[in-house]
Records
---
Amino acid sequence: MIRETHLNALIWLLLLIIPLAAWQMGEIYTITLATKICVLALAGVGLNIALGLGGMISLGHAAFFGIGGYAMGILANHAQSYIPIMEHPFLIEGTKYMPVIWLLAIVMSGLAALAIGALSLRTNGAYFIMITLAFGQMLYFFAISWPAYGGEDGLAIYVRNEFPGLNTLVPIQFFALCFLILTAVIFLSSRLENSRFGLALQATRQNETRTRTVGLTPYKIRLIAFVISGMICGLAGALSADLNRFVSPVMLSWHTSGEIMIFVILGGTGRLFAPLVGAAIYIMLEHFLGGVSDYWQIFLGLLLLMVVLFAPGGVIGLLTKREAAHD
Amino acid sequence: MTDILDIRGISKSFGALKASDDISLTLKSGEIHALIGPNGAGKSTLINQIAGGLKPDSGSVHFSGQDITSLAAPARARLGLGRTFQISQLAPEMTVLQNAVFGALGADGRVSRFWRPVMKDRSLLEVARSALERVGLNHRAGERVSEISHGERRQLEVAVALTQKPKAFLMDEPMAGLGHGGSERLTGFLRELKQEAPILLVEHDMDAVFALADRVSVLVYGRIIATGTADEIRTNPLVREAYLGDEEEHA
Ligand SMILES: Nc1ncnc2c1ncn2[C@@H]1O[C@H](COP(=O)(O)OP(=O)(O)OP(=O)(O)O)[C@@H](O)[C@H]1O
Ligand SMILES: [Mg+2]
């Protein structure tokens, strides 16, 4: 039993040290796995704001992840084919420049989250789950039937996009980039959790009548959180697409929403490092068991079942003692 | 004395049940107006309509001279209507202090702040701590709400309402479950509090009602059958028959 902050520090260090060691030993594949963990964990950090802090059970977050992916795919696709995105009324060209891609990914997924959130947050309970699911699936089928950008086959990007000062084709450098972004976003999300907004969001999850009674509107608070959550998933989607150098409608499907939710629940819903722990477990199971059997997800299912039944605080909750309430 | 609250002809039905039947009453500055009545008379339903949690079928609610009938609950709270619930409505996983700070945050209104830690916000903490102090909960500030007693939750509800610095209070059975000592202390506190803001008080504890109330209204089957001073109500034959007599039989 250790304190949650110490466990978090340990996990963070492992995520840094293992790829560095692998780099020294020339184990490129391990670095790629660690990068994958960073990127998926980032999506989980996004969902955790809506789900863990806000109590919004969204099965549509793949939409934001996928929009981030397609933002990257479309910009890079136009850049590699030298065909502008549009010429009239003004010229917009593609780009291979990551900061611009990320900005677009964040803005587009944020706008989508605003629209989807504005409608679905008028409902609650099972209806909310269903509506977010429906919006996600709408985008999925739209992507499948949109031939300009690969339709069902998706889009391949031949060369990884660029970041100033780095050679992103070198695995350890791209890992470092993803690791830093993940670290920064976890830090931002911990600031948010303890801020005025974080208090209001968590209070609203616990008792929305209380929120109304102190003069605040639950809908607005949830909508802001939903948009922030979606923007982070969008950024994760852009990075994931860059990691795989490939975008496809699968990013938008409800399986992806489910996976992101599994990371959060496995790690411990609402806990700062839950998405990282959950994503790491997921990737390791896939890596070690996926080679043994095609049905490795059965084990994932069992693990999830055990966590839900016996460890509602997730793996982190299991390993840490509950910190006494303190202000 | 001016009317802070003015309820005019409110009616509300749940199917065939008339929970509020053409109710009119006022709350004047400086007074405690007690609302009594048997179980199921419609007291909580009335409070809920005044606070904005439930829309009346007809009638209107005026607060400080403004018609607030069409305003939602948060807007009414921001105008200065403070409320406590019959069944505590608090954030159970948060601490006592965090709940009070949340009240202060609601009153402050600036929620879209994402960076600075709210529990280090001096202005909010000051409001929260002084409210806890007033109800005698400061020593429990660091405790999680799910771990404090039922009576303490009632006190905390009052404290959170205080952080709002309301112009009027709506209190739905604040004494319930407090025990004799707690009940007596709260009675003393409410007598003090009414100087700051008048209180519409739903209460079953008759000792408290007759000790505190400047006026008493009696609600039976959704109708107000009498309004008057404590003495007038005690001796009103209609009330004795419909309500107080009933109580004595039970006792
Ligand atoms: N949302 C609702 N739907 C249907 N009926 C309701 C609803 N809310 C209250 N009622 C009914 O309206 C009547 C008045 O209820 P209310 O809770 O206002 O009574 P009360 O005077 O506060 O009683 P108590 O002293 O037990 O708190 C009751 O018969 C109750 O069952
Ligand atoms: Mg009641």
---
Amino acid sequence: MLHLTIPQDKIDSARGFAKQITHSLEELLNSYSSVTIERTVLRLLGIDGALEDGTPIPNYIVDQLKSKNALDKGVAYWISNAIVYTGLSAQEVANSVKDGKLELTQIAQQPTTEVIKVMNDLTQKMIDHIKQQRAARESYFAKYGPRNTPSLYVIVATGNIYEDVLQAKAAAKQGADIIAVIRSTAQSLLDYVPYGATTEGFGGTFATQENFRIMRKALDEVGAEINKYISLTNYASGLCMPEIAAMGAMERLDLMLNDAMYGILFRDINPQRTLLDQYFSRMINAVAGIEIQTGEDNYLTTSDAIEKAYTVTASQLINESFALLSGVSPEKMGIGHAFEIDPCIENSFSYELSHALLTKTLFPHSPIKYMPPTKHVTGNIFEAYIINAMFNMVAQMTGQGVQLLGMLTEAVHTPHLADRALAIDNAKYVFNAVKDFSSEITIDKEGFINKRAEAVLDEAISFLKRVAEQGLFNALEKGEFANIKRAQTSGKGFEGVFRKSEDYINPFMDKIKQELNLD
Amino acid sequence: MSTKIDKTFIRPYGDTMNDGRMQISFSMPVKADESGKEAARQLLKQMGLDEIEICYIADLSEGFAHIVAYGNTSAFVDLTKIQVKTVDTDVMTMEETDEFVEQHLGRKITIIGACIESDAHTVGIDAILNMKGYNHRYGLERYKWFNTVNMGAQVLSEDLLAKAREMNADAILVSQIVTQKNIHVKNLTRLIEMAEAEGLRDKMLFICGGPRINHDLAIELGYDAGFGAGSYSTDVASFIVTKLANK
Ligand code: B12
């Protein structure tokens, strides 16, 4: 394996500043909750379904409690109290609320020990289910063998889950290790998760629990045919981050895009909301054994990949630090970056190699998520195919974990069947061709690649130091990240953030913290 | 065949004048075997190709195959009859444009840009507008005689028009990147129809851009100009000032 020579104290100081940044937010993380966190609790209690107009029952209940100023106790209490009173199941209680037959806040307070017992039983039941899913995944890998490294990750994005299934199965047979179902445009800005199987999406397919189930089943089937476990991934991001994480945990997704700050910067979601939501989402992913992935590539679609390389490094360290607070282990942190340098630049390959190695050096245990060239890809599909080969070469030589395959038609359309197959062929050829090549070459300590990596880290350190000194919210407000200014109390979804009352309870967060040995 | 080019009779050129040789690649639900090749051949035949060579067929699984083929077309085009609408103003540098405005218009001009409706891709419009510019050309924000407002992404047509009215804009610049299901056509049409309804259409220039926009399409949709992939701030700026001076 190629390796860089970078002073350990520099790496430590970068991590130290990142830790200072994230740990200063503990008051927020401990004292507040959000509407989507509460909807997640409802889903984990076993409540699903939707009203006639499509409003999911979890939204309906949370909105109702909010309108009664009763949300700050947490939904778990209200549902458990109603279960004790009525003797119904959680779903039956929810249905009665939906039908207007039950008013949660009107029910007399039931004996606390009984309420707590109901709550704990339901919590345990769901945690057991999630752990079973985790065990199932592990036994599949034990049976068929581990995932390839770098793993071949391809997307399906037809908008129709059944069409996606066809394409995913074909991709699996062609050699894909991981299937990502891209979400429909702007799903991240919906403050609810649509219900049921969907066949109309735009630039992608809606993330719904039923769609997760359909795709999981299809991939298990194709896996049995080809003796391989095919991993499934989606996006726990946007206004429903923890709900999607919970759905993924229940339906055995294997990876989840789950960035700490993406929503704030690139979707203008309120900073407090995002940080709260990522905290709980990542806990769910951690207990479910789901590999999270971060979205640093986004910094480079809007900024120059050389000039702003340090923002990627800084964000990676912040993402890591937040993930540790949620109990995610380094082996399950798919720290992200991208191959986005302008191909016209001289020695662009050396820059890319340097940046990729820096990521690998900083996160040696991470199944690093490597994004393909996109921004500089044009309608010249032949050129795109070559650039993707270079990207694949860097990945194999630097030990990246998950290779998001570049498509020759990136600048044209969402991938066609043959585009995906060609991308898989490209990666297979290059990975095989340079398989052990890097074990025989070394990086010159005084050379460009090593110096470049160290320079990026230096810039990241001074940036992180500046952010640590002023605090994350002030830094966001001043536009320190990606030149985008985000105020602490503005942005989408802020109205969904609330302070917990003294007697607030989220049994899942408590239980998961126990499981993960957090505080 | 002669190697002289006859502009009234043009076919694809592989390695001999007017051989009509073309390269085609596609996938379809056939087996990757002789029957699949024959299916591909018949399809290409129906498309008017001859000398068909299926040079590659590969199994894509799930009943599909990928096919790469060559064939000769007997179709031809007459170049002398081709008409395309292009933006044909002379392109000036930033300095020349500023000087032009000073001399011919004698006042600052106001430009409002946005990526409208569902579209969130800002890199293209930023390349045209941002101070920093793109590929060694500064964006309109840096032009001394331009007063430029960039409203950013997912701007509703009504908001863009309200701003244009408020600022008494000289030109509106709209970006549309996503084209799936012709969403760009729908969005651009919505904007122009609203502008017409509000009586703003003739008060300012309406210009659109994006990788799959061209001048022809823009004119068809009722815009003054359209700019496609690889266009620069200088192209748009020159067009705007020339057009305003001629008004
Ligand atoms: C970066 C990017 C993103 C970023 C955008 C970040 C941002 N803030 O802009 C993110 C990650 C957010 C994104 C999201 C999505 N994207 Co996108 N994205 C791209 C990508 C990789 C590059 C676009 C780009 O920046 N090009 C560089 C600029 C400089 O070029 P340009 O836009 O063409 O602009 C030039 C000209 O067109 C012109 N121009 C453009 N606008 C204007 C306006 C005027 C007035 C003028 C004069 C000129 C002009 O001048 C510019 C300079 O020359 C393209 C693929 C590609 N390589 O093109 C996909 C692509 C455009 N995205 C696509 C899709 C499907 C999406 C999503 C729907 C995916 C999803 N399911 O979520 C979402 C949609 C979000 C939304 N609501 O719009 C598809 C669109 C397919 C299609 N034909 O419709 C593409 C082609 C990728 C693909 N193959 O699937 N994307």
